[in-house]
Amino acid sequence: MSGKNAVKPAQPVSLAPVPLARGREFLSIPGPTNVPEVVLQAMHRPAVDIYAEELLETTGQCLADMKRVFRTQGDTYIYIGNGHGGWEAALTNTLSRGDRVLVLESGRFAKGWGEQGDMLGMTVEILPGSWRHAVDPAAVEARLKADTRHEIKAILVVQIDTASGVVNDIPAIRAAIDAARHPALFMVDGIASVGCMEYEMDAWNIDISITCSQKGMMMTPGLAFVAASPKAKAAHLKANLRTAYWDWTARDYPENYRKFCGTAPEHMLFGLRAALGLLFEEGLENVWARHRALAAAVQAAVEVWSKGGALEFNIPDPAARSPSVTTILTPGMDPQPLRDFTRHNLGVVLGSGIGDLTGKAIRIAHMGYANAPMVLGTLGATEVALGALGIPHGAGGVEAAIAALSAHFKPVR
Ligand SMILES: *Cc1c(COP(=O)(O)O)cnc(C)c1O
To answer: Is the CB of 162 under 6 A from ligand 1?
Structure first.
């Protein structure tokens, strides 16, 4: 062996281009989304006594703040769970074995919720929809009008389907239910939309709202949020699917440990409090407007890229495209090499297609804690990858996104 002064052999020089990924990884997937530093910092602390005043206060504050987020006077619940937990809480608290529920299809997620109902012993009926269009309120009205005996006890819909990238018109669906004079509970999954776009639980007469922590709420995965209208609370009293963990009655008691059916998720509550602080500091309306502007930039880029023929919006109707995630079809092309390229070479993680779109699409998220450079960076990296991989695309997508953002700031005359 050589002595301690031996010169280290030089790194072999590689002729392959070096990756440009070192630096902060850009997570551009539709959940989990980017967690702000102040939220992470709020969680980085020792555990506290479960009876500590600060914890009790934080719980009360988070429950009250979730009413502001859902825009409701109804009761709110925080579960240790993910979005699927929120779905189960909604169903078990208000429905009974054998109840018929109507699932409004517009992609993956409402159907997944319906599958839960099926396992719980409900009769699940799917109002067929498409992965490329929003739910048709007229079809909802027609189906409900045909249900003259009011066998349908609940209507399940997502506001944004994160798989298809569609946004459903919740007030229009409410109007359809009213036009049919149907008494079913109206349950809305706002998991990919609450904290990203208009959501008005009381004004839209929604009976149960659901969201969770890791999307528009800018928190780590692990919490589900449910809000219940008085009509939902009345249905709760007659439901026979209630279980100890999800039960609203138990969680309505004042004791903190009952609110969580056991130990509170202390650190997540501290993080949530910080995330809610960010939302209210920016102002919910401004948060929604930011999402709209960033979505417009992404859509402008995709519009241009689509001219090459290899990429295409999954949702053809611009008005039905979600402000929080854009789903892009890659007809005839496996999109995985594109995702691998952006991740390994450029440090950007793009979303993959899921459900029916597995292996057929990519998704770009613009959801939660996202700003202009994050979106422009993601679009820029995507365009670099399209060029490097020789995927046909219209040139100038990023320029179009820049123009869209510039237009956002043009003074209104
Ligand atoms: C992510 C998502 C879900 C599922 O949430 P999990 O936390 O993964 O259980 C349900 N619905 C929608 C619309 C979603 O975007």
So the answer is: yes
Contact by Cβ (8 Å): 279, 287:
yes
Say which CATH architecture domain 26-34+284-408 belongs to: Alpha-Beta Complex (3.90)
Give the tens place of pLDDT for each residue, 238-252: 999 999 999 999 999
Residue among 218, 221, 165, 158 at smallest CA distance from 190? 158
Amino acid at the residue 213: S
Tell me the pLDDT tens digit for each residue of 24-68. 999 999 999 999 999 999 999 999 999 999 999 999 999 999 999
212 lines ligand 1 (CB under 6 A): yes
Q: What are the strands, taking DSSP E only, across 140-220?
A: 152-158, 160-161, 166-167, 185-189, 208-212
Residue 2, pLDDT above cutoff 60: no
Bond into 32 cis (ω within 30): yes
Mutating to test ligand 1, I would choose from 88, 215, 219, 226 the residue with most ligand atoms within 8 A of its C-beta, which is: 215
Residue 386: count of CB within 10 angstroms of its CB: 22
- Helix intervals (H) in 237-331: 248-251, 256-259, 266-282, 284-305
CA distance 128 to 200: 26
Write out the two tokens for 112.
Answer: 């997944």
Domain with CATH 3.90.1150.10 in the chain: 26-34+284-408
